[in-house]
Design a protein that fits this description.
Layout lengths: L2 H4 L6 H4 L8 H7 L6 H27 L10
Helix pairs in contact: 3-4
C-alpha cells in the first residue's frame, strides 16, 4: 500500500486499481502484432488511448476543484 492509502486519502481509480493496466493494452497488441489481425492491434491502441484520456480528464477535474471561482465583474 502507498502512503496515501495508509493516510486515508481518496483511492485513485486510474492508479490504484486494475484499470491501470488498460494503459498498457497497446503494448500487448504490439507484442502479438505478428499473430493477430491488424484490427486487434488498432483496438489495443484505442483501449490505451481511452484510458489516458479518461485519466487526464479525471485529474483535470480534480485539479480544478482546488481553485476558487473568479469574482463577478459588474
Amino acid at each position: 500500500m502507498s502512503q496515501a492509502q495508509l493516510g486515508g486519502a481518496e483511492r485513485d481509480l486510474y492508479r490504484d486499481t486494475w484499470v491501470r493496466y488498460l494503459g498498457y493494452a497497446n503494448e500487448v497488441g504490439e507484442a502479438f502484432r505478428s499473430l493477430v489481425p491488424a484490427a486487434v492491434v488498432w483496438l489495443s491502441y484505442g483501449v490505451a488511448s481511452s484510458y489516458v484520456l479518461a485519466d487526464a480528464i479525471d485529474k483535470g477535474k480534480k485539479a480544478g476543484e482546488d481553485f476558487l471561482p473568479l469574482p463577478q465583474l459588474d
